[in-house]
Amino acid sequence: MAILKFDGIGISAMAAAVPNHVIENLKYTDYFPIEQVKEVVDKVGVIERRFADVDTCSSDLCFAAAQKLFYDNNIDRSEIDLLVFISQTQDYRMPATACTLQHRLGLSSSCIAFDINLGCSAFIYGISVVYSMIHGGAIRKALILDGETRSKVYGPRDRRSAFIFGDGGIAALVEKNPKYGETTLSLNTDGSRADLIMIKAGGYRHPSTPDTLKERVVDEYGNMRSQEQGYMKGGDVFNFVIREIPRDIKKVMEVSGKTTDDIDYFCFHQANNFINAFIAKKMRLDTSKIPHTIEKFGNTSSVSVPLTIVSELKDKMKGEKTLLLSAFGVGMTWATGIVSFVDTKISDIVEVENGQPVDEYLRREYTPIESESEESETHPNHD
User: Fold this and answer.
1) Are 3 and 186 within 8 A, CB to CB?
2) Taking a C-beta distance cutoff of 8 angstroms, is the pair 62, 86 a contact?
3) Taking the CB of residue 223, how many other CB atoms lie within 10 A of it?
4) Cβ pair 242, 275 in contact under 8 A
């Protein structure tokens, strides 16, 4: 049982960045009839997404988020002793993107920097790694950068994934402080289901060739993709999630001694509106405690949980808050955390302009995105 516990370590500040290019799903109809598009949108719940342009990478979105975090919180960059970059859409096969971000952000050469290559559960995995390193050594402050440009790895001609994924990046500052309470994390892996979500070609097991880049019909419904575009076995993923996630949440709550009444907010991976509504109903959760962003950002993979916190809880994190984080995805991996937050400072979301060199954010103002108010209407597909 991979259960980790920490005390006196927490996230003191968060920021996020998304591309300014909005994809409206009901207008994303180049390859499918509007009736089919509407059916998918109604079922999954993704109304809008953000797409990065060809020159904007996940590291650029994280860079913009980190700059916003530094400026809003007057952070001394020389005190950042650890930078962890989380992504499966990194800049290069080598070097690690964390190394280039250390340089771009002006951090000390004594700063530890490395990547974590993991899917949708990776933010919680990243918390476990960073908290462990802070607990075990003399690290003063650590930076978690989590970014994905999933729009670049799923094909627009495959209806099962074409309307789901979006792009974003976040920055989270982690510090040691006695004011933070206990954090409990559960991390899990089942590699026997690795084929449920996969990009088969383009790595060293199946290297790129002209043939792997060629789009082809992959099923009787006429969906098309190349071997270097991602696919999902949606039904199998759903069955996996509804079995494992409620079980993992119950396990973490039992180990931590918490009840649902002790949780201020339940922040779930924004994979699918139906899945989250199912989990909430099965576990009899108060849906007013479940923020959601899938309708406006889509599934941003590992970014979805922290992006939901930044987007929906910006003005709700004063004082002591206990959040339950839960995510699942590629691997298959899944993770649940009951995480202590105290007076976490959350910045406005930055919109990164496509075509604008991201390093210009050193010298220009940010365009904030307004968070939804508490009185905003609940998404129609949310139980």
Assistant:
1) yes
2) no
3) 18
4) yes
φ, ψ of residue 88 to 5 degrees: the values are -115, 10
Question: Contact 204/240 with Cβ under 8 angstroms?
Answer: no
Phi, psi of 105 (to 5 degrees): -85, -5
Q: How far apart are the first and last CA of the chain?
A: 32
Rounded Cα distance between 303 and 300, Å, is: 5
pLDDT at 30: 83
Compute CA distances 236 → 222, 256, 272, whole Å.
20, 30, 14
Tokens of 43: 């079922």
Residue 235 token pair: 């039904």
H or E element: which one contains 235? helix 234-256
Q: Which two tokens stand for residue 21?
A: 């290019």
How many of the other CB atoms lie within 10 Å of CB of 281? 11
- Backbone φ/ψ region at 16: left (φ over 0), alpha (ψ -120 to 50), beta: beta
Cβ count near 31 (within 10 Å): 16
Closest CA to 115 of 139, 92, 136, 138: 92
What confidence tens digit (pLDDT) does each residue in 154-198 have?
988 888 888 899 999 999 999 999 999 999 999 999 999 999 999
Q: How far apart are CA 175 and CA 11, in angstroms?
A: 6
The answer to whether 42 touches 381, Cβ cutoff 8 Å, is: yes
3-state secondary structure of 25: helix
- H or E element, residue 197: strand 197-198
Location of structure tokens 């004594």: 110
CA torsion, points 165, 169, 173, 174, in degrees to nearest 10?
30
What are the b/e assignments for 100-127, b being 16+ CB within 10 Å?
Answer: bbbebbebeeebbbebbebbbbbbbbbb
Give the pair of three-digit tokens for residue 345.
Answer: 């400072």
Express each pLDDT in 90-121 by its tens digit. Answer: 999 999 999 999 999 999 999 999 999 999 99
Nearest in space to 290 (alpha carbons), one of 367, 379, 159, 353: 379
Query: In whole angstroms, what is the distance from residue 130 CA to residue 332 CA?
Result: 22
CA distance 279 to 285: 8
All residue ranges of the chain with pLDDT < 50 are: 362-368, 371-383
